[in-house]
Description:
Elements: E1 9-12, H1 18-28, E2 32-37, E3 51-52, E4 55-56, H2 59-62, E5 66-70, H3 76-87, E6 91-94, H4 100-103, H5 108-114, E7 119-124, H6 139-145, H7 166-189, E8 193-198, H8 199-204, H9 210-217, E9 234-238, E10 244-248, H10 252-261, H11 265-269, H12 276-280, H13 283-294, H14 299-309, E11 313-314, H15 319-324, H16 326-330, E12 334-338, E13 344-348, H17 372-378, H18 383-391
Parallel strand pairs: 1-2, 1-6, 2-5, 6-7, 7-8
Antiparallel strand pairs: 3-4, 9-10, 10-11, 12-13
Helix pairs in contact: 1-7, 6-7
Amino acid sequence: MSGPLTGVRVLELGSLIAGPFCAKTLGDFGAEVIKIEPPGEGDPLRKWRRLRNATSLWWHVQSRNKKSVTCDLREPQGQDIVRRLAARSHIVIENFRPGALEKWHLGWQELSAANPKLVLVRISGYGQSGPYRSRPGFGAIAEAMGGLRHITGFPERPPVRPNLSIGDTLASLHGVIGALMALREAEQHGQGQVIDVALYESVFNCTESLLPEYDAQGYVRGRSGSVLPGIAPSNLYPCNDGAYVLIAGNADSLYKRLMSAIGREDLREDPALARNDGRAAQMERIDAAIGNWTSSRSQQEVLEVMEKAEVPAGRIYTAADIAGDPHYAARGMIQAIVAGDGEPLKVPGIVPKLSATPGAIRSAAPRLGEHTEEVLQEIGYGAPQIAELREHHII
Length: 395
């Protein structure tokens, strides 16, 4: 079960979400990921959210396809282990506060001196430079600073957060993109480099026309609930069984098919509504027509009509809906594994889908320090040295 990154060694120094998700993604596609964890306690994610057998269920997703090595980065002997591993790695990933690696003598200068082709991915709240660089930064703060929180929710209520760490995940994916580009550069020209990923910038990068709207017209985009302002129709509509349906008929041809499907030929043929800018000016009129139609039908009836008319529509999925959905299953997005605690568990599958060299779940998330001796022996540590390091709680 090799992948396109087979032969690439990744050294993961981070914890919790952003750095580990970046490494997890690379590991899904064949990279060997060696995860460094503090002795005794490990990555705090091991105890986050809901636990089974004293271990987070999240851990089994975030840390699959990884090897766990315990190592105290605050101690010189632990720092020497990391330097040896970095010298044999292609990519190092860290998400500490800027300056932490330098304090531990593990900064870019030290690591690249022994490995000029090394790619160092540094994920932090505010980046490695700028007046905010030293501030602690979590995904929630990045979502606020990056502009996402202000536009999320309903206009009459305070901003809300999605019940996910989306800021961390966006930063992780930007880290993956940067790592792969830098890896190609290193392979072609023999020169490694630093990938500086800021959480808030990763969020800001996904805010579409938020900034140019303000710069050109002084418009500050705000919260709009389930509506997508300026793009019509696209909204959440009520059904007579208490459920809702999302309908997105915002392309010109889709709009015409939608209006025909709900029996509103008058709106279909209105020249003022032929293009999106005209429809955006009359969103309330269009939404009222669609809502009146859906509210006299069940969710299933609405979805069947929309599917027949080839108009994008869907219901709001819960975790239970996802687990039982045949399309998720057919696409391999629900994977059944035996977790590290020996019990069965369903976890998300691999994204994206590669036709020739697909990713795979090759190993379950490791127990704390499960691979310490194996990895240290590979980089030249003998049994007496390993025993001494363990005796002094370095590993």
